[in-house]
């Protein structure tokens, strides 16, 4: 058997934590090898070692049978290893071609200032792998899915043949996910090797040949995907059976908590991203907002939470007009927010975990007294939340938030917001990047909040999540409400038609 990559007995220590503990990963040439593991299990660390961002504390790496030292990403590139990161690294106002040749050192193999010949090569690569990218398009004018393909082309242009994808589907629509799977298959058919980090068992089943499972830094085994089930993979990963369903009893909703009336909000291009939008959320009810990314959901949430200005219309919280209130005032009035962009709006990354946990309430009892912070109370609350929400990090409450794994940062935000038990909780993509065990728990807690009489507005691109949690579903298309249906009276098909604007249901004709 010939391996493209062998990472043998890799150990990596960070302060207070062994992120990888004697892990061995052997990736066969021309295969798709999934890397699965709980939040904080050490997947990103292992891939960062392979890409030269970290040095292992112990262990050996072989590329195509040769032992190597990958001291930095340039060495990784020269060995034919490329990585598509979760957050793209593209210059918005440049074209596809300009982005791809950007950063190539003069005198290296494909360095050129001749845009035309570079564009030609990009066109050829794009056709060869079925990417369908226009080399002259500007990044700011293409979809997120297309931008990801530019990242893939960047690797192919540099002749990478071992490609690492870090949770590539987290930012894609279902259609784009389907296309990416096809692209991955094309890539291996043409001789490339792929390592895929993902939490989505369905995707592993669909596309991967082999799967290595990590748990708490250790390798739990490598399995042939065709011979296993999603349930078995989940069990191997979290060490217990995982319940994929969400239990929810029928409940009569109470008074109206959130009222949105004829709301209008501009998007970043200065156009109306939300047009005349009206919706209500009542106590004891989860209203799910379904829609394809970019149909006004972000602008809607921004206007509700005070991150963007409303151009027209009204927002009422418990009957009080908060349309133009400050963020602080909205929080005090009973609003909680689990934001879409956890780094931008959810956490202060250079603060300690415990500081982030009381960020809304540090100046109130029991966390402050006579103008002084009460560290014992802050520590106690943080430890409680860490325990309850299983937030894992190297140094517990003292950990600098930046060094935590993405999934554990997300769990920390959810813990803080749910613990405050606000009357209205606005939840955006709550389980993005979370492992199946964590998703099970977070879903339970959201339903618990609803059962406790809280109003919940859930915005998610995951239809499964919308269907499982919502009582009532609002569909957004092109900034408008195109559907208002009870969750139990609809299905994915019908929602899909409303999401694409093909039909309207439960709302007045346009
Ligand atoms: N630069 C760092 N400094 C200190 N600790 C770190 C650093 N990078 C990662 N860690 C710790 O190493 C552990 C493994 O993190 P890693 O990001 O590899 O997990 P992951 O499996 O990718 O998780 P997720 O699914 O949540 O992204 C975590 O406990 C994290 O806090």
UniProtKB/TrEMBL annotation:
The keyword ATP-binding appears for this protein: yes
PROSITE patterns: ABC_TRANSPORTER_1, ABC_TRANSPORTER_2
GO molecular function annotations of the record: ATP binding; ATP hydrolysis activity
Entries under Gene3D superfamilies matching the protein: P-loop containing nucleotide triphosphate hydrolases (3.40.50.300)
Membrane topology field: Peripheral membrane protein
Location of the ABC transporter domain: 5-241, 258-503
Subcellular localization: Cell membrane
GO cellular-component term (any): plasma membrane
Matching Pfam families: ABC_tran
Protein name: ABC transporter ATP-binding protein
InterPro entries per record: AAA+_ATPase, ABC_carbohydrate_import_ATPase, ABC_transporter-like_ATP-bd, ABC_transporter-like_CS, P-loop_NTPase
CDD domains: ABC_Carb_Monos_I, ABC_Carb_Monos_II
Originating species: Holdemania filiformis
Major subcellular site: membrane
Keywords tagged on the record: ATP-binding, Cell membrane, Membrane, Nucleotide-binding, Repeat, Translocase, Transport
Family: Belongs to the ABC transporter superfamily.
């Amino acid at each position: 058997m010939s391996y493209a990559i062998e990472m043998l007995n890799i150990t990596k220590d960070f302060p207070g934590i062994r992120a990888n503990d004697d892990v061995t990963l052997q990736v066969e040439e021309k295969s798709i090898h999934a890397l699965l593991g709980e939040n904080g299990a050490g997947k990103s660390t292992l891939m960062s070692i392979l890409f030269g961002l970290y040095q292992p504390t112990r262990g050996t790496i072989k590329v195509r049978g040769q032992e190597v030292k990958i001291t930095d990403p340039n060495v990784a590139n020269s060995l034919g290893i490329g990585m598509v990161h979760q957050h793209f690294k593209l210059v918005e106002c440049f074209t596809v071609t300009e982005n791809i040749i950007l950063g190539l050192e003069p005198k290296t193999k494909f360095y050129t200032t001749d845009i035309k010949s570079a564009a030609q090569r990009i066109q050829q690569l794009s056709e060869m792998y079925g990417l369908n990218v226009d080399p002259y398009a500007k990044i700011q004018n293409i979809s997120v899915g297309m931008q990801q393909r530019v990242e893939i082309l960047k690797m192919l242009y540099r002749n990478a043949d071992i490609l690492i994808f870090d949770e590539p589907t987290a930012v894609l629509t279902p259609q784009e996910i389907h296309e990416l799977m096809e692209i991955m298959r094309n890539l291996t058919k043409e001789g490339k090797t792929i390592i895929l980090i993902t939490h989505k068992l369905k995707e592993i089943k669909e596309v991967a040949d082999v799967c290595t499972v990590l748990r708490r830094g250790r390798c739990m085994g490598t399995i042939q995907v065709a011979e296993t089930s999603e349930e078995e993979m989940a069990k191997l990963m979290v060490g217990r059976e995982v319940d994929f369903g969400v239990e929810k009893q029928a409940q009569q909703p109470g008074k109206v908590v959130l009222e949105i009336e004829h709301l209008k909000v501009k998007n970043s291009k200065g156009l109306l991203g939300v047009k005349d939008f009206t919706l209500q959320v009542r106590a004891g009810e989860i209203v799910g907002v379904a829609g394809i990314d970019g149909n006004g959901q972000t602008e809607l949430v921004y206007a509700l939470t005070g991150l963007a200005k409303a151009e027209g219309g009204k927002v009422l919280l418990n009957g009080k007009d908060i349309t133009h209130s400050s963020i602080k005032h909205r929080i005090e009035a009973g609003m909680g927010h689990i934001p879409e962009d956890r780094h931008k709006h959810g956490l202060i990354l250079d603060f300690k975990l415990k500081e982030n946990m009381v960020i809304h309430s540090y100046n109130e009892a029991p966390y402050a007294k006579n103008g002084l912070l009460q560290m014992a109370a802050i520590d106690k609350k943080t430890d409680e939340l860490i325990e309850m929400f299983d937030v894992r990090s190297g140094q517990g409450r003292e950990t600098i938030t930046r060094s935590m794994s993405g999934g554990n940062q997300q769990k920390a935000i959810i813990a803080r917001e749910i613990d405050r038990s606000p009357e209205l909780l606005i939840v955006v993509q709550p389980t993005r990047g979370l492992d199946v065990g964590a998703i099970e728990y977070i879903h339970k807690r959201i339903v618990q909040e609803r059962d406790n009489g809280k109003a919940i507005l859930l915005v998610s691109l995951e239809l499964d999540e919308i269907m499982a949690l919502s009582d009532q579903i609002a569909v957004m298309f092109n900034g408008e409400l195109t559907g208002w249906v009870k969750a139990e009276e609809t299905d994915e098909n019908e929602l899909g038609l409303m999401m694409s604007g093909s039909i309207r249901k439960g709302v007045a004709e346009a």
